[in-house]
Specification:
Elements: H1 7-12, E1 17-18, H2 25-28, E2 36-39, E3 45-48, E4 53-56, E5 62-65, E6 71-76, E7 84-85, H3 106-109, H4 119-134, E8 139-140
Parallel strand pairs: 1-8
Antiparallel strand pairs: 2-3, 4-5, 5-6, 6-7
């Protein structure tokens, strides 16, 4: 997800359908004080989801860090707006379309991968859908 859009913005533009992205639904309801403040490249302030680790290389580019503080394959170019997964275009790497078969290995590369959910998490998501539909008037996709 590129951004979590605030409710007042959704209302201003009469948005009637919103996504329920399970990779960030839990964080979306946390108070701003739990989020990590970060100045974006153009100077605007932003908030990153709790637990997000960002590293900066010698040229000022950002990389997402894993839980151990090691860089992942997700990079944001200087003056960029989102992270690119560069695992597919490493120097010297060639992808043969005829034999390319994505695997579940991706879950070990992505900082957004989530383990299976437990019942309290499932209940939370159901409650979130109910709230968005009944209290905010949104359809959820």
């Amino acid at each position: 997800m590129i951004a979590s859009v605030e409710e007042k913005v959704l209302q201003r533009f009469h948005v009637d359908v919103v996504p329920l992205d399970i990779s960030c639904a839990m964080e979306d309801v946390r108070p701003d004080s739990d989020w990590i403040p970060k100045n974006l490249y153009e100077g605007a302030g932003g908030l990153l989801p709790p637990g997000t680790g960002i590293g900066t290389d010698s040229e000022g580019r950002w990389s997402l860090l894993d839980r151990n503080g090691n860089p992942t394959s997700f990079r944001m170019p200087r003056e960029g707006y989102y992270f690119d997964n560069i695992s597919f275009n490493q120097p010297g790497a060639v992808i043969d379309p005829a034999t390319f078969r994505p695997t579940s290995r991706q879950k070990t590369l992505s900082p957004c991968w989530m383990p299976p959910m437990n019942m309290p998490d499932c209940r939370f998501l159901l409650e979130r859908v109910f709230f968005l539909e009944t209290r905010r008037g949104h359809s959820v996709c």
